[in-house]
Amino acid sequence: MLLLSPFLFLILSTILPNIVAHPEKQEDVRSPQDIQARREFLHGAGDTLSRCRSALNGRSISEKAIKRRAQWARALRAKDGILVDKLSLGRRDFGTVLNTDHEQHRSGLGSHPSDEELFGGRIDCVLQPEVTVGPYWVKGEMVRNDIAEDQPGTPLYMELQIIDTTNCQPLSGAFVDVWQANATGVYSGVVSRSNGNRYDLANKERTYNRGIQKTDSDGVVAFKSIFPGHYTGRTHHVHLITTIDAGKTSSGTLSGGHISHVGQVFFDQDLTDTVEQDYPYTTNTQPRTPNRDDRIMQEESETMDPVFKYVWLGKKATDGVLAWITIGIDPRAVYHPRAAATVGGGSK
Ligand SMILES: *[C@@H]1O[C@H](CO)[C@@H](O)[C@H](O)[C@H]1NC(C)=O
């Protein structure tokens, strides 16, 4: 028996990390309570969405949003030396999620679309049930807006606006934590069989494509990143967690507060198809899962449209994408998602 225990330890230490850090497995396990909670959530979601729709589409919120995004797009284009009058622009149409050819909207646009055409349109907030837990969420990430680091890929500028569903107004002072895979579908900070090369132990120390921002008075955070790549079993997506009443520590991360939202945001199929045609996305050897086969996206799309609206920033896909979405959260909700790791290897 005594001889067995080191052997057992060896076996367990080989097997356990893979079980613990396997995100797809985590997502599949649902307790009856989770399923019931989700049912209740979906039941109330329609009411909340229609209640907030008129508030969000009131002049002050929608005009500010159009101005903000148009200014950002102009600044980005000017910075990269792209000629504004030669842009080929696309946008996604609101209210459509799957199996829609968005190309028709792109070619339907005039050559000089107005800011209103490009950045306006009805604002609906996205509500997300907590059951979409965060695989590869790493606790203790830095508060910073540039999360691209040295990762090669198509530039992605994301604007996320957080709405308080109790009053349908922008939620300021909330911390939004985002994380995503790199161009070849690997998350930083986690070493696991299902995340790139599991023998690349140095990946534990990497922090690319992760970061946290605090919402401003319009409930808005912005990040500069690269367009995420795909990985086995999932379509392209960005994860987010919103924390309320938290503070920023002297070392630049979060402390305190409670998590009120855990979600994932997606991209149009034709957008990901286009991005995937360029290097280094072309070097990704993992099999692709189209949007229509992504179970999390399907679930989220049952009641709402969890897909980024976007414009291309230039003539080529590699010039980058500006994407935005409005997310409704109830700041009183308290969730306890499980982290896959903690920066610096501290306790969870
Ligand atoms: C993505 O990250 C992994 C792990 O750090 C790395 O090996 C790979 O080269 C990265 N992909 C690209 C395109 O740089």
UniProtKB/TrEMBL annotation:
<feature type="signal peptide">
    <location>
        <begin position="1"/>
        <end position="21"/>
    </location>
</feature>
<keyword id="KW-0223">Dioxygenase</keyword>
<dbReference type="Pfam" id="PF00775">
    <property type="entry name" value="Dioxygenase_C"/>
</dbReference>
<dbReference type="GO" id="GO:0016702">
    <property type="term" value="F:oxidoreductase activity, acting on single donors with incorporation of molecular oxygen, incorporation of two atoms of oxygen"/>
</dbReference>
<keyword id="KW-0560">Oxidoreductase</keyword>
<dbReference type="InterPro" id="IPR000627">
    <property type="entry name" value="Intradiol_dOase_C"/>
</dbReference>
<dbReference type="InterPro" id="IPR015889">
    <property type="entry name" value="Intradiol_dOase_core"/>
</dbReference>
<keyword id="KW-0732">Signal</keyword>
<protein>
    <submittedName>
        <fullName>Extracellular dioxygenase-like protein</fullName>
    </submittedName>
</protein>
<dbReference type="GO" id="GO:0008199">
    <property type="term" value="F:ferric iron binding"/>
</dbReference>
<feature type="domain" description="Intradiol ring-cleavage dioxygenases">
    <location>
        <begin position="142"/>
        <end position="235"/>
    </location>
</feature>
